[in-house]
Amino acid sequence: MTAQDAEELYVKEALALANDRSGHASSAPAPASGAPHGPEGARHAATPWPEARTRAERAARTARRRTPVTVALHDALGLVLAAPLTALTDLPSFDTSAMDGWAVAGPGPWAVRDEGVLAGHGRPAPLTDGEAAPIATGARLPPDTTAVLRSEHGRTDASGRLHATREVNHGQDIRPRAQECRTGDQLLPLGTQITPAVLGLAAAAGYDTVGVIPRPRAEVLVLGDELLTEGLPHEGLIRDALGPMLPSWLEALGAEVTAVRRLGDDAHALEEALRNSSAELIVTTGGTAAGPVDHVHPTLARIGAELLVDGVKVRPGHPMLLARTGRNQHLVGLPGNPLAAVSGLFTLAEPLLRTLAGRAAQEPYARPVKEAVHGHPCDTRLVPVVLRGDRAVPLHYNGPAMLRGIAAAVALAVVPPGGARPGEALELLDLPWATTGTQVCFT
């Protein structure tokens, strides 16, 4: 089947589903709201996609406040500041030279000292008017320096006196003390995510350690007897794509993944894993529907979990769920199909982890789509895209079981029910490792 065939089949199935729901193509009566659904009892109505994300954020906010920790700078990358970063010193902490050249005092020409001034050395002797000293970038200025003459803007005559080849202004190429900040100035607010540049600023401002919000601990439970961990698919068995993919993806979303456990279709093993986990987020793969080996719902019922989201009006990924399994523990149940699981990550895991980790939400942004995008008649649809100039290009191979499209994508486009016309602006959700504007496009 080609990618175009798969797309057309998707639309036909979506239209058939819409007809079934409206009663036009099905004589079977729809279950009443709150009526039992399948052998395990009542199931909730699917939650609209925006509301599902809001519920995930709200669930994280109602958890117990997470205690900040102090870490060394080299362990802080990617974490979030638990308190404002304030300067522990003036920056720079003394007057320094911004260029290689000469520190000069008064108007030229200048008599040049034999001894130069290097970075990292002690306080140099003061200059007198008409005197210059060779100086390196970053070196402490001699007292009474009036300017720095760049090496390319000066020359010495036969007698060794220094002349400027262009006008020298007072204060030229000097970085005065506290030019960037003064001791006690707030450099960055609470909640700033720590990037390499933030680490550099913290070090320059005098920090050896910083207070941060720790990463939420996450555990992945891979369900399904049909999954292989190596080799080629055979005899009805398929390779597990989610076990290798989810830990790195969750870490990119801010989690610390403490374990990846393969449980197969064993209801007892799943219940024991849920009862004994100390993770703040448990992520399961598959088993969220109502089939004979879909054990997630009945297991959650046995342990007394509270279902916060039970199905989401999004494609792919409709049978995802979010449950509170303890005071400070939540479970995100992902569908077993790989792209449907990615949809679950963005819908439920991302807002939950982001809020737990204290990260700021991505600023919403939209781009016009280059071509028409098929939509589901009733549900939101998430479609992998790349960017070409100011246009989002939808990628093929975007069926629930496919990863080929998302592997080449930089973002997911949020397609409203009914689809989008060419040129229509759609909200984009950046992939956590993608560089916006990537031009690669495999369709």
UniProtKB/TrEMBL annotation:
Keyword Iron part of the UniProt annotation: no
The keyword Transferase appears for this protein: yes
Pfam families for the chain: MoCF_biosynth, MoeA_C, MoeA_N
Source domain of life: Bacteria
Function summary: Catalyzes the insertion of molybdate into adenylated molybdopterin with the concomitant release of AMP.
CDD domains in the record: MoeA
Biased composition (Low complexity): 24-39
Protein name, entry field: Molybdopterin molybdenumtransferase
Entries under PANTHER family matching the protein: GEPHYRIN, MOLYBDOPTERIN BIOSYNTHESIS PROTEIN
GO CC terms in record: cytosol
Keywords, alphabetical: Magnesium, Metal-binding, Molybdenum, Molybdenum cofactor biosynthesis, Transferase
InterPro entries registered for this protein in UniProt: MoaB/Mog-like_dom_sf, MoaB/Mog_dom, MoeA-like, MoeA_C_domain_IV, MoeA_C_domain_IV_sf, MoeA_linker/N, MoeA_linker/N_sf
